[in-house]
Write a structure and sequence with these properties.
alpha/beta, Rossmann fold, seven-stranded mixed beta sheet, about 45% helix, about 20% strand, globular, methyltransferase
Length: about 250
């Protein structure tokens, strides 16, 4: 099964699609202090939960969501319609790097999708091109809670410089030309809720769909759970930074 379909199935019961709680998500969006008739962009939106929440909080706002997964975008359209914001949400089936907007945005998000731009620095450079002068960027990125062992790096297929520690992650963001105005560091409980949901939702789907696709989904869930429980749990952290260009 292709990667983005696995991701869509795994996030079925956790549409935030990051180790972030409902309350933390709302706090981040409120701290963005969007103006009336704000324009919002999510690069790698998945099922668009972040921007649907933004539209619910700001009834005059409009949003664009960009993703390569047709399944995720179809789910996003259904969610937006069910929650009464579909007329203010435009969904684009394209790569995050391929999106072009005709006007600047007041808030640009890229949460858990910085791989689309080769990492945090490339993501923030791309996000800045979409931001208006007073706009804000909301970016979610991993960081090393503790120094990873060679064995854990091998499990993650990552190098030691894949991420920095928390201080270094903030420094990387600010070197790109931003100031940090707020942030949320995910707790262990948020991580556990996210990972058990990820692996459990995919396992549930696999057991309901016997056959080659179900076998592939079940294998992906078990592989992911092993890498998490035996590898990056308490090693990899996640921080969502609210940034302003300087």
């Amino acid at each position: 099964m292709i990667r983005h379909l696995i991701s869509h199935l795994a996030h079925r019961d956790h549409p935030i699609a990051a180790p972030v709680s409902d309350d933390a998500l709302e706090r981040l969006l409120r701290r963005a202090r969007l103006p009336a008739r704000a324009r919002v962009l999510d690069l790698g939106c998945g099922e668009a939960e972040w921007i649907i929440r933004a539209l619910e909080l700001h009834p005059e706002a409009t949003a664009d969501g960009v993703d390569v997964s047709e399944a995720a975008l179809a789910a996003a359209a259904e969610r937006a319609a069910a929650r009464g914001v579909a007329d203010r949400l435009r969904l684009h089936h394209t790569t995050a790097a391929g999106h072009t907007g005709s006007e600047p945005y007041d808030l640009v998000l890229c949460v858990g999708a910085t791989h689309a731009f080769g990492g945090l620095t490339g993501s923030l450079q791309a996000m800045r091109r979409h931001l208006g002068p007073a706009g804000r960027a909301l970016v979610g990125e991993g960081f090393w809670e503790t120094t990873p062992s060679p064995e854990i790096l091998a499990l993650l297929d990552a190098g030691p410089d894949e991420y920095a520690d928390l201080s270094g992650t903030v420094e990387r963001a600010e070197r790109t030309g931003y100031a940090t105005v707020h942030a949320h560091t995910s707790t262990r409980a948020e991580w556990d809720v996210y990972e058990w949901s990820w692996t459990g939702s995919l396992t549930d789907w696999a057991l309901d769909h016997p056959g080659s696709d179900g076998d592939a989904a079940l294998a992906a869930a078990r592989d992911h759970r092993a890498v998490w429980l035996d590898g990056y749990r308490d090693v990899l952290g996640f921080v969502t930074l609210l940034l302003r260009p300087v």
